[in-house]
Amino acid sequence: MNVPEPPYYAIIFTSRRRVQPGDGYGETADRMEELAAQQPGFLGVESARGSDGLGITVSYWATLADVRAWGRHAEHLLAQKFGREKWYQWFALRVSRVEHATEFTYSADAPTQEG
Known about the structure:
Radius of gyration: 17 Å
Shape: globular
Distance between the termini: 33 Å
Number of helices: 3
Structural class: alpha+beta
Strand content: 25-35%
Order of helices and strands: EHEEHHE
Helix content: 25-40%
Largest sheet: 4 strands, antiparallel
């Protein structure tokens, strides 16, 4: 993921799903990612969910005002309502300011160090 140099904001959403086939969760999650990407200040998203239903989604935003605007978006508010009513056993939302970030990418072509 290509984000600018810090500072920026990371919104960490940790949840445990109540898995119910056909409940519309997957479609809504895809739509929220698509919609977030259209919002001012959106920088990217990373997401993972285990077979036990525990998931973590981190979205990245340029400013705190951008974060707040996304939280108040009408379609996002509806998804939040459904989350509380039918999709999640539990969730936590954390807003963090990223001050420093590093990244590593493995390359099979890179020379190896033997010792």
